[in-house]
Amino acid sequence: MEPNTTPKKIVTRFAPSPTGFMHIGGVRTALFAYLFARKHNGTFILRIEDTDKEREVAGSIEQIQESLTWLGIDWDYGPTKPGPFGSCIQSERLEIYKKYAQELIAKGLAYPSPYSAEEIAAFKQQAIDAKKPFLMRNHRPETFDDWDGTRPLRLKVPEIKRYTWNDVTRGELSAGEEMLDDVILIKSDGYPTYTFAHIIDDYIMGVTHVMRADEFISSMPKFLSIHDALGIAYPTFVTLPPILRDDRTKKLGKRDGAKDILDYRADGYLPEAMMNFLALTGWNPGTEQEVFAHDELVAAFDISKIQRAGAVFNEEKLLWMNKQHLHKLSAEEFVAYLSKNVPDHLKRIASFTTEKLAALAPIIRERINTTAEFATMAAAGEYDFAFTAPTYETEILRWKNDENVSAGLPRLREAITILETADFTSPETIKAALMPYAESVGKGELLWPLRTALSGRAQSPDPFTIAYIIGQGETISRLKTACDKLGE
RNA sequence: GGUCCCAUCGUCUAACGGUUAGGACAUCAGGUUUUCAUCCUGGAAAUCGGAGUUCGAUUCUCCGUGGGAUCACCA
């Protein structure tokens, strides 16, 4: 049957199995289906394919929804939002699959498997010994028993032929009859297989574009033969490229260390950065724009620019992408972002306040890609100066041109005098007050001991910013402490 | 093994037969700077191989090579 080409509202779906957390690959599939639907003002459905009780992991459905919601992917129908077609959870649609199964039985196109697992294993062994492909259709019984629901129901393949179909990203594809078999439609536990259930649901839910990873290409003849048996039209197929491991040897999967997408949230990645980055692996806008906000992505998304080849997930570029989105945040948004992710190290400092954090925010922003990095830097004491007077060896106060540490003493004393009457309304005003003197003695000669006296570190933000953050009183106090130490 | 899919810098990718093969990340080298960071400039870096079609192939065809997917009462 030919694809339905009459223009109609686009409907896509993301149909995960609740078998654990979501990783990059699954999320990217969801994202493409979502972007395509939103771009064309279509419908996006989140369907839960929980037909394998063995593999089901408790809490997965909630985690899937939480992951998508975090990224900013919403759905029109989902687990808690049934559609006109009923529930979006397959285990709640068993009667529907049975109805279609009965239809196939009535047409003589489905039959209960008469064999035990042992008998099938024996058939398989025979095929292996004879070096021939193992196909159940070669063991089809002469006559079909009635189906009482306790035995698996198999498809009687309607036609053994080579299937050719069209794929939006891959063009014309085809696969031969060796892929066609009497596949199981309903398992002995009463649940349908993926092969059967997804076709019926896509049909009933009006899915126009089936977007999924390329691992399903080889199963297409089976899927198509079921469409034919059912007498329903094919949807449009859109194959997505795989996401590969770093070493390119495999598809990225949970067992290869693919992280839970929510771990990225914990590390302080912005959902828009993650969405942006994911959109760019396996797709590109055809322009040189790389940083996209959610709505820009929806507007730019073009199904015809989906890649064919697999892509390696590049964490370093994701880091860079997050920084780009961090810089798009307003000052208030950035402070809110930091406040939600205050490193334990800073929380333990008694004088920590969110006001101080806000003052510190601009210099943090240019130093981090994620809050995970913020935590690492904080743990190393890099931001302690904002909250507490530093402890340090006096040697750190020595500018490289000075022959000894105390050479800086008179300069610090002069700086104190200047700062006692300086304007502390911004780092710039402080700088303005100090620079004439600094230039007269040599910038490094004053600025190095000044900065290290304030931060207690060889490497830190500039002294004017530190002075501004800690305030006039604390600035002078720290400089006097330094002078005292040098005077000893 | 059978069948199917894929192939441009290390990585993500652009170039709908004609470009000095472009951009980004990473990397290297300079510069700004009181240190770190930021920022700026520049460099190096790719069409898997071989035929064919064509005046001309990254682009089209075929073969090879390499990689991947799939052959379940899993999805």
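qc> Chain A has 19 helices and eleven strands.
qc> done
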